[in-house]
Amino acid sequence: DPSVDRCMQFSGNGRLKVRSEIGTDVMGSGTIELWVKSDADAQNTILVRRAEMFAFNNQRWIDYEIGLQNGIPYGLFQFRINNTQLITQRVDACRPIGREWTHIAVVRDIENDQLRILVDGAYEGQTHTVQRPPLTTYGVFETTIGGGDLVGGAVQNGFRGCLDAVRVWSYARAGYALNTQRGDRFPEFTDTGFGLSAPLRVFNFDDGGTTAENSRYVQDWLHNWQHAADLQGDAAFQLSPWHPLAYDLDDDTTSDNNE
User: Fold this and answer.
1) What is the dihedral angle through the alpha carbons of 183, 120, 193, 186, rounded to the nearest 10 degrees?
2) Helix (H) or strand (E) holding 23
3) Of 9 and 183, which is predicted with more confidence?
4) Which of 42, 48, 44 lies closest to 165 in space, CA to CA?
5) Dist CA 158 CA 143 (whole Å)
6) Interval 91-123: pLDDT, tens
7) Residues 214-238: b if buried by 16+ CB within 10 A, e if exposed
8) What's the pTM?
9) Which of 25, 113, 173, 191 is 20 to 30 A from 199, alpha carbon to alpha carbon?
10) Within its chain, how far is the Cα of 44 from the centroid?
């Protein structure tokens, strides 16, 4: 029931694994954003990652990753120079997040040679010399949310806390759009004025059961939820006292939902 506000809760040994992976998912310019509520300080964890499932020449290509290191948000991308060498580009925020709901966005902007990170709509870091990755030619990719690899039933770098509104876009979103629209329930229906496409993935976690719906595909149930994500380990839907529409992002004392 999407009218009931929910989020996804993790206790350190759970994750979501997205069912569908296609070649066009490989990140050129793009944006990954999500809301995070940590249950622990100084976590070292993976929040969202798309990477090869298995090593190629003893290396795994990480297409994109957002996580926390000592509680500080970071984003990284890799590209392959040749069969034996990967280059990692990373950007870090400037401070740890607390235990309140926090919005994190990482933008890979190839046209301007920048990798940027925003926290609660504000720029906190950027790096240059971003290079375009090649097409997917190695291995099989997987996208996980809430943790990394699943090894012997244990999730590596598992997150403790709640995630909501995980979104992946195929272009570099502007900072003002990320700031003003981070509280939108359905950003894919927001008119950007530039004719830009909807996000590739929208996980709002307002459904239930054993899969989380990718709201980009409104009739995915007709295809046996092939674009959804499977809950693994301790990942569980949780009624959430938070919802972006309850926020007062313009600080005028009236909730955005009532304006």
Assistant:
1) -30
2) none
3) 9
4) 48
5) 14
6) 999 999 999 999 999 999 888 888 999 999 999
7) bbbbeebeeeebebbbebbbbbebe
8) 0.86
9) 113
10) 16
